[in-house]
Write a structure and sequence with these properties.
Length: 209
């Protein structure tokens, strides 16, 4: 995949980081309460996590390869996705990879997956994590892709939330590895009518929530 170097409209990315503050407040204890398996059975999604897995991993590899060609010491530290009013690729408003290039203390390189039909592709932006330092994402521990993570939260109340808010909602996802080395998906369902959000933390290795 190829990326065009153009300015990044942060309006689509920043909402995905709103859940970072809430996640940081609760800490890693949220990742060990229960385990959900066999996410393909009784799916609420049209996406197939098995079929999507190869592209998911390939896209990560291509983004990493592109960035380290210019910044050899860069590390992938986060992934961000946002869906608007549905959970298909047609509803995907943001799909980006966040790298720490270590060139400054408060800037990160944000690279878009070209699946997003927009002008933005890559740019540096100011600190997104309130000063917290994230660890490099170790792909060996990334066993739960974003479709699997969505299946898990859909079965844990997310589907009912979407049914109850058909007039408008968004689903934001943020993959990070914070202190303690635990790799997690932080997922937030937000209604446009101002109803309280629903939030989950899904262990990206085990699928525990």
């Amino acid at each position: 995949m190829r990326y065009k170097k153009v300015l990044l409209a942060l309006v689509l990315i920043l909402p995905c980081f709103a859940i970072w503050a809430a996640y940081s407040a609760f800490g890693q204890s949220l990742t060990n309460s229960s385990d959900i398996s066999n996410t393909s059975e009784g799916s609420f999604l049209t996406l197939d996590y098995i079929k999507e897995d190869a592209d998911f991993k390939s896209d990560i590899g291509e983004a990493v390869g592109q960035v380290i060609s210019s910044y050899p010491s860069a590390d992938l530290i986060a992934m961000s996705l946002k869906f608007e009013d549905g959970l298909t690729y047609n509803h995907l408003a943001n799909y980006s990879y966040i790298f720490d290039t270590y060139r400054d203390n408060d800037t990160y390189l944000v690279v878009n997956n070209p699946m997003i039909d927009s002008q933005m592709s890559q740019a540096f932006t100011n600190d997104l994590f309130d000063g917290a330092k994230l660890q490099k994402i170790n792909e060996n521990y990334l066993k739960i892709n974003f479709v699997q993570a969505l299946e898990i939260v859909e079965k844990s109340g997310g589907h009912e939330f979407r049914v109850d808010h058909r007039d408008g909602y968004s689903v934001s996802m943020l993959l990070t590895c914070a202190k303690g080395g635990i790799l997690n998906w932080q997922i937030s369902y937000a209604a446009k009518d101002g109803s309280p959000d629903l939030n989950w933390v899904v262990n990206a290795t085990s699928g525990a929530i």
